[in-house]
C-alpha cells in the first residue's frame, strides 16, 4: 500500500514551511506504524459500511472522519466505533447492527 502525503502553497507561506508540514505529517504517519493514513480513513469507513463490516488501524480520526462516521450511521444500519489503542494509533471498526 502507498500513502500519499501532500502540501499546497498559500500566498504568504514560504515553500520551506509547506515542505516542513509535509515532512511532519509523513513522520507522524511512519512513527505510528499504521496501514491507513488520516485522509484515507474517512473514505474506507463508507466502503466498509456498505460492505457491512471491517476493521482498520489509523491515526487519530480527523474531524472529517468523525463527521463521516456520524453521517454514515444516520443512513446505514451499522455501528462504527473508533477506539484509541496507543498515543496516535486508533482502531476503527464497522459492523452491522444486530437486528
In brief, what are we looking at here?
With 99 residues, this protein is of the alpha+beta class.
General description of the model:
α2 (38-51) packs parallel to α3. The chain has a domain at 35-96: Ribosomal Protein S8, Chain: A, domain 1, CATH 3.30.1370. It contains three helices and three strands; from the N terminus they run ααβαββ. It has helices spanning 15-32, 38-51, 63-75; strands spanning 53-58, 78-86, 89-96. It is elongated. With 99 residues, it is an alpha+beta fold.
Average predicted confidence as pLDDT = 94
SSE arrangement, N to C: HHEHEE
Oligomer: single chain
Q: Class of the domain at 35-96 in CATH?
A: Alpha Beta
Helix content: 40-55%
Shape: elongated
Could you say what the CATH architecture of the domain at 35-96 is?
2-Layer Sandwich
Number of strands: 3
Sequence of strands across the biggest β-sheet: 1-3-2
State the low-pLDDT regions, or none: none
Alpha-beta content class? alpha+beta
The CATH topology of the domain at 35-96 corresponds to Ribosomal Protein S8, Chain: A, domain 1
Span of the ends, CA to CA? 35 Å
Work out the strand percent: 15-25%
What is the number of helices? 3
Over all CA atoms, what is the radius of gyration? 16 Å
Largest sheet: 3 strands, antiparallel
Layout of strands and helices, then pairs:
Blueprint: H1 15-32, H2 38-51, E1 53-58, H3 63-75, E2 78-86, E3 89-96
Antiparallel strand pairs: 1-3, 2-3
Helix pairs in contact: 2-3
What attributes characterize this protein structure?
99 residues, Ribosomal Protein S8, Chain: A, domain 1, three-stranded antiparallel β-sheet, 45% helix
